[in-house]
Design a protein that fits this description.
- It is built from 13 helices and ten strands.
- The protein has 389 residues and is an alpha+beta fold.
- The chain has a seven-stranded antiparallel sheet.
- A hairpin with a 4-residue loop joins β2 and β3.
Amino acid sequence: MRRKLHLLFLFFIIGKFLFSQIPQLMESSKVSLLTCATGDELYSAFGHTAFRVQDSALGIDVVYNYGTFDFNQPNFYLNFTKGKMIYSLSRRSFEAFLYEYELEKRWVKEQILDLSLQQRNQLLAFFEENYLPENRDYLYDPLLNNCSSITGDILKEQFGDAIVFDGSHLKKQYTFRQLVRQFMNVNTWSMFGIDLAFGSPVDRKATVQEHMFLPYYTMEQIRNTTLNGKPLVKRERTILDYSEHTQNNFFPLSPFFWFILLMAFTGVITYFDYKHKARSRWLDFSLLFITGLTGTFLFLLWVAADHTSTPYNFNILWAFPVNAIVAFAFVFQDKVPQWAPKYLWTALGLMAVTLLLWIIKVQIFSPVVIPLLLTLAIRYLYMIRHSKL
């Protein structure tokens, strides 16, 4: 009995050793790139990219997915805000991967790469090394280091100068902000928030490879990429064929609609204030305090977070952080403080600088902010006038 236990233990050790080794792919194996359609949720609004490795002779059909994250990880939203979001490489069966996209009715397309057997095994070894617990996590960046941009990085790292990304298929080289707006309607709360948080660095033109942070651009770029002078893609096929998801935007729920209402409301209140020689203190307090809090948050994203896309954000010129403090001086008494006109003229001047930076394209702002700027201008000018009464 003891001898049998020893033999079982020996077989267990040998089996564990053998199965822990990276298998060597056969000649019939394939390595391909999967591109998945956009979804309805914000995190899926730009599509998805993953690698597939299949070898029918060895019974292998797995997907290596660099876009895995966990909402339940500690401090998820705080880490996302601070630019310390951790994504992971996951490995799962192709069948399990595909099931999610079947449920959501999102198309999936496959590009089989024209690689030698040695190159296929090289990539598999790289994925398996990356999948080790100590290697699978990486610091996520929505523009420079995500599940899609990492595709180009991997190909360059593995094959060096033999990989050439030809950009002749691009009609023009877009800025990062322009690229994001191609997939999201400007007049949505999500895009307004993104535009508000993005600083001026996203208004530079992306390089050919940097366009690959978007999965659709990665798919198109791989079609126009060569390896040792030959096309990288051997052939393409559609695995799931569904229609493109479209955004159904209801204008009365959009930010532009509500900001127009705010501007109209402010205009009406200001008219009645003018007729009665009064000042709506809580309106002034609310506008100053909310814009000040917004500017403070944007300033913290600039100086205290690790995002590459949020520094040098000149939205803080109109959403001036000091407003959050100054607001309290306007709420407790009807009379405007003596120093207030100078402060308000300065605030109006900063809003003018915002428009100038927009015109000369130092930073492109969301057009949704126009009614907000007009709302602030109406009240600033009225408070200056009221201070003279």
